[in-house]
Amino acid sequence: RKEVEQDPGPFNVPEGATVAFNCTYSNSASQSFFWYRQDCRKEPKLLMSVYSSGNEDGRFTAQLNRASQYISLLIRDSKLSDSATYLCVVKSGSARQLTFGSGTQLTVLP
Amino acid sequence: GAVVSQHPSRVICKSGTSVKIECRSLDFQATTMFWYRQFPKQSLMLMATSNEGSKATYEQGVEKDKFLINHASLTLSTLTVTSAHPEDSSFYICSATLAEPQETQYFGPGTRLLVL
Questions:
Q1: What residues of A are in contact with residue B43 (Cβ under 8 Å)?
Q2: Given CB atoms, is A94 within the 8 Å cutoff of chain B?
Q3: CA–CA distance from B108 to each of A20, B21, B93, B114 (Å)?
Q4: Judged by CB atoms within 8 Å, which residues 28-87 of B form the interface with A?
Q5: β strands within chain B, DSSP E
């Protein structure tokens, strides 16, 4: 079983749609959680950290369910510029390494 | 935000040559830098953790004699792919850790290596 699992997609949605991505992680001792976005042939960029209480940044909402070891990202009113691959990322234990999911590809259509 | 640079951005080389990739944190000091590799349509895979002034810690399956890492200062880490072969062709990305918040990692723009 992969440490971090994501639905690879692709998700093709019209502009203005709401889209949700899910992610599960296997290490119950994981401590920090993030969503990164990666554009084609570019480096990953931090989208947002995910906190236990859930957090929102504009059109983006992240949720964490520790009991189910589940992380989600909700994008409201999607824009063309949201088209990218969204990476679920987990940091576990005392190690400083990040473990990346394989990413979910999103295409927002005009 | 924190800025990390990588050089070169892309390199094409002949099989058997060695390639050095530099990773710099431009506006902060990073005690730890990470090197990742990403093959097409796959996610980032951690290769090694680079700590300033000490030997790098390599992930299982990554040959330390093939991928030489030097972290000579708090702002510079280098990865040298020795005797590169076509199967080493990949997108190599470094990241540097900013202590707060949550030890966020900031990524360099990546180096695309093509070995002919």
A1: 87, 100-103
A2: no
A3: 28, 11, 6, 18
A4: 32, 34, 42-46, 49
A5: 4-7, 10-13, 19-25, 32-38, 45-51, 57-58, 67-73, 76-81, 90-97, 105-107, 111-115
Give per-residue pLDDT as tens, B44-86. 999 999 888 888 999 999 999 999 999 888 899 999 999 999 9
* pLDDT at site A94: 63
Q: Which residues contact B108 (CB under 8 A, 6 or more apart)?
A: A43, B4, B5, B6, B23, B24, B93, B94, B95, B96
Contact, B19 vs B111, CB < 8 A? Answer: no
Give Dmax (Cα) for chain B: 42
Position A41 scores a pLDDT of: 85
Contact predicate B37/B112, CB 8 Å: no
Whether residue B2 contacts residue B62, with contact meaning beta carbons closer than 8 Å, is answered with no
Cα dihedral A8→A48→A71→B110 (10° resolution): 40
- How many beta-carbon pairs below 8 A join chains A and B? 47
B105 touches chain A (CB under 8 A): yes
* Coil/strand/helix, residue A39: coil
pLDDT of res. B5: 95
Q: What value does the mean pLDDT of chain A take?
A: 92
Closest Cα in chain B, distance from residue A95 (Å) = 10
